[in-house]
Amino acid sequence: MNEATTMAKRAPEANLRAEPVRRSQLYFSPLVDVHENEQELIFFADMPGVRPEDVHLHYEKGELTLHGHVTPDENRQFLLNEFQVGDFTRTFSIHESVDADKISAEMKNGVLIVHLPKREEAKPRVIAIKNG
Amino acid sequence: MFWNRSSSLGSLFRDMQRMQREMDRWFANGSGPLAASTVTSFPALNLWEEDNQFFLEAELPGYEIKDIELVMHGQDQLTIKGQRQAPTLEKAVCHRQERPFGQFQRTLRLPASIDPNQIEAKLENGMLKIQLMKSESARAKKIPVMAG
């Protein structure tokens, strides 16, 4: 891996507002799926190699930042080196109708799952039509 | 939609840059003595050796042990098979779909013959880690030098 390629792989959105506990040299943008139902928004982020205790979630002013720290191994002489190891980080702008106090997250087999419940007033409701 | 970024041109550019990075990440030429092909198969693999063992790692987030199968062919060919199911969510709309789902299969020829009875594999936080012991005949041997 030459230096130019390594540079190109550094994510520009890596400047987190909240300083993570540790930082490694390389940053990657995780692949993310976003689903929405009537109750909540659900994020699924692929973060292979990230331990549950190394995940950082930050929500401020409608921005959700996902960060997962990976400790790279000491310099190895690879026979085959097809992927690099580094932190995962990505920021999303979220509509303010999310109830920030109730955001919850879990880590399952290297996938970060974030639940963002909607505020009561943002949930869909049926409006009754009265007879005139 | 629940985010505003996708509306601006700047964000489109950012998304494209991000895609480019992902492409670089997944389709980068592998490096190291074994790298031969220009397009890398899924999953991307890292392989190194220490003494009489090979260590193989693959990023497989969201896979469970039951989703992965390892098969040894002959002395030195290892096949990794697997599949990942998309989560089923009731009455949900999908806004963004970037993670790949489905089946994969990849065969790797190791640089030396392997003892098929001494392969250890574990799945740790979405990372598949395989430890393979070289067969007796492939191990390094010290050759004594006699005094003339």
Describe what this molecule looks like in 3D.
The complex is a heterodimer of chains A (132) and B (148). Chain A is mostly beta strands and 132 residues long. Chain A contains 1 helix and 9 strands; from the N terminus they run H-E-E-E-E-E-E-E-E-E. Chain A has a 4-stranded mixed beta sheet with strand order 1-7-5-4, with no helix packed on it. In chain A, strands 2-3-9-8 form a 4-stranded antiparallel beta sheet, with no helix packed on it. Chain A is elongated and about 80 Å long. Chain B is 13% helix and 39% strand. Chain B is built from 1 helix and 8 strands. Chain B has one helix spanning 9-27; strands spanning 45-50, 53-59, 68-73, 77-84, 93-96, 102-109, 114-124, 127-134. In chain B, the strands form 2 sheets. Chain B has a 4-stranded antiparallel beta sheet with strand order 1-2-8-7, with no helix packed on it. Chain B is elongated, with a radius of gyration of 21 Å.
User: Can you summarize the main beta sheet of chain B?
Assistant: 4 strands, antiparallel
- How many E strands of chain A? 9
SS field, number of helical segments of chain A: 1
Strand order of the largest sheet of chain B: 1-2-8-7
Please give the share of residues in helix of chain B.
Answer: 10-25%
The most extensive contact between chains is: A-B, 47 and 54 residues
Task: List how many beta strands of chain B DSSP finds.
Answer: 8
Q: Which structural category fits the helices and strands of chain A?
A: mainly beta
**Average pLDDT value of chain A?**
81
Gross geometry of chain B = elongated
- Tell me the strand percentage band of chain B: 35-45%
**Alpha-carbon Rg of chain A, integer:** 19 Å
Low-confidence segments of chain B, given as residue ranges, are: 1-7
Which regions of chain A are unreliable across 5 or more consecutive residues at pLDDT < 50? 1-23
- What is the assembly state of the chains in this entry? heterodimer
How many helical elements of chain B? 1
Our measurement of the CA-to-CA distance between the termini of chain B, rounded to an integer number of angstroms, reads 83 Å
Relative strand content of chain A = 35-45%
